[in-house]
Amino acid sequence: MIKPEDQFKKVISHAKEYGYVFQSSEIYDGLSAVYDYAQNGVELKKNIRDYWWKAMVQLNDNIVGLDASIFMHPTTWKASGHVDAFNDPLIDNKDSKKRYRADVLIEDYCAKIEGKINKEVAKAEKRFGDSFNKEEFVSTNPRVVGYQEKINSILTRMGKSLEKEDLVDVKALIEELEIADPLSGSRNWTEVKQFNLMFGTKLGASADSAMDLYLRPETAQGIFVNFLNVQKTGRMKIPFGIAQTGKAFRNEIVARQFIFRMREFEQMEMQFFIKPGTQKEWFKHWKEARLKWHLSLGMGEENYRFHDHEKLAHYADAATDIEFKFPFGFKELEGIHSRTDFDLKQHEEFSGKKLQYFDHEENASYTPYVLETSIGLDRMFLAVFSNSLVEEELDNNTTRTVLKLPAVLAPTKAAILPLLKRDGLPEVAKQIVEDLKWDFNVFYDEKDAVGKRYRRQDANGTPFCITVDHETLENNTVTIRHRDTMEQKRVKIDDLREIIKKEVDVKHWLQKMN
Question: Which residues are involved in binding ATP (predicted)?
C-alpha cells in the first residue's frame, strides 16, 4: 500500500511532467508557495470554474455574477475587520529558526491521532469482513472513543483560546502535548504572536502622495460594497445571490502542501442575501446543494465530510466546512457560513451610505442577512487531480498510470491518432481534428507506437483515443478507446461528436444534482 506522503509526491511530480502545474519562476529557483498553471492545468482550472459557474449562476435565476476589482479603497478593509483582525497565530522554533502556524501544529497533532483511529478501523474491517459495522465500531470501541475524545478536547480548547486571543494558553497547549518542530524535533518554542496576512502596496505616481492599499485577501468584500448596485440595476428580489470568481492574496508565512495553501490563489464565492430570521433554513439548503455539486463529479461520497466550526467568527451564527480527503488527510475544501448582517452594517457605518433593501411585501426596509459559500479553486483543482491519479495493475502483469479526471473537466476530450504516418492516414486524422475542434478540445498525435500513445493519453487524463487505420479508408469507421475501461469499439466517423458529447456534456453531469 502506497504511503500518503509518497502518493502526494507522485501527484506533484505528475502535475509537472504532464504540463499541469509548474513552480513559478523556476529558472530562478522559484518563489515559495507560488505556482503557474501550465497548458493542461489552465484548461482543467477553467473547466472547474465553468462547472461551478454554470451550477451556481446559469442554473439559478436568482443568482447573478460580478467581477470586482482586486484593488479596493483601504477603508473597505478597515470596515471588514481585516486591518485589525486578519491574523494568524505564529510560533517560532528557537533551534531550527523555522516559523509555524500554532493552530496548524495542533491540528496536525490531532491528524496523527486520527491516523491511529483509521488504523484501528482498518484492522477491524479486515478481521470482521462483510459483517463489519463501521459506525457501531467507531462509537463503541474504547480505544477509538478515547482517541476521538482526546481530539475533541484539544480542538475545543484551542478554539476557545483563539477566540479569546489567549495566545499564552495556545503555547501552553503545544507544550503540554509535547509537540516538536517537524524538522528538527526541538521543543524550544517562542511565544505565540499574531501576524497580519494582508499584502500592502501603493497607489499613486509619487511617494509623497501615494495612497496605502492592500491586495484583497478575499473576494467577498467586492460583493458586499456592490450589493445595492447589483440589486437595483438587476431589479433583484430577496432572496438573491451574487457570485464571483477571482484572485485573492494572503502573505501566508507557512504556505505548504503544493497548491493547497498559496500566497496567490483563486476563490469561487457566492453571497446569498436573505431576510433576517430565515438563515437556518438557507444554511441547511446551501449545505445540501453544495455537497450535491461535489458529488456530481463522482469522486466518491466517502471522500467528503462536514466539519462544523467549534470556533465561530464573531459575526457568524453558523459555519461548516466541506472537507475532502486529500493525500495528506481530510482538509477544508469549501466553507459555508451564515454571516448575519455584519458585513453590510459595517460598510454602512464606515461609508455613511445606506445598504438596505426595501421589501415591498413587508413595506419596510431592512439590512439583509448573508449566507456565504466559498470554495478555493486551487484546492478544488488539487482535490480533482489527486483523487484521479491512480496506478492500475493490468491482466498482463504490467501497470499503467492513469489520470481518471471526470470527463467533463478533462483538458483534452479526445486524442486523434493515425495508426501509421503514411498511406493517407494522417490526412484523415487531421480532418477529424478539424471537424471536432469546434466543439471539443482535441489533440493530434502521430509519434511512437499506438500503444505508447494510449498510455501517454491515459496519464494525461484524456477520456477518448480515436485511432485511424486502413479500415477507415474503406468504410469511414474508426476505433474509439475509453480511458477508464480501455474498451475499444468500431464506430462511424459521423457518430464521434455525439459519442464524445454524451460523456463530456455539462448537462449530463450536473443533472446528477437533482
Answer: 250-252, 260-265, 332-333, 376-379
pLDDT tens, position by position, 134-153: 888 988 999 999 999 999 99
| Prediction pTM value | 0.84
Q: Is residue 261 a known part of a binding site? A: yes
Q: How confident is the model at residue 1 (pLDDT cuts 50, 70, 90)?
A: low
User: What kind of architecture, by CATH, is found in domain 1-71+217-391?
Assistant: 2-Layer Sandwich (3.30)
Give CA torsion, residues 282, 287, 289, 290, to 10 deg: 130
246 appears as a binding residue in the annotation:
no
Boundaries of every domain in the chain:
1-71+217-391, 412-513
Is there a binding annotation on residue 120? no
For the domain bounded by 412-513, which CATH number is listed?
A: 3.40.50.800
The span from the CA of 379 to the CA of 385, in Å, is 10
Distances (CA, A) of 9 to 6, 14, 219, 284: 5, 8, 31, 37
> Does 236 carry a binding-site annotation?
no
d(CA 437, CA 441): 6
Quote the mean pLDDT of the chain. 92
The answer to whether the annotation marks 487 as part of a ligand binding site is no
Any binding-site annotation on 135?
A: no
For residue 294, give the nearest of 327, 336, 340 by alpha carbon: 336
* 387 among annotated binding-site residues: no
Q: Is 503 annotated as a binding residue?
A: no
Tell me whether residue 114 is annotated as binding: no
Segment 295-325, tens digit of pLDDT? 999 999 999 999 988 777 777 889 999 999 9
Q: Is 264 a known ligand-binding residue?
A: yes
Q: What three-state secondary structure class fits 396?
A: coil
- Cell numbers placing 59: 442554473
400 is in an annotated binding site: no
266 labelled ligand-binding:
yes
Was 252 annotated as part of a binding site?
A: yes
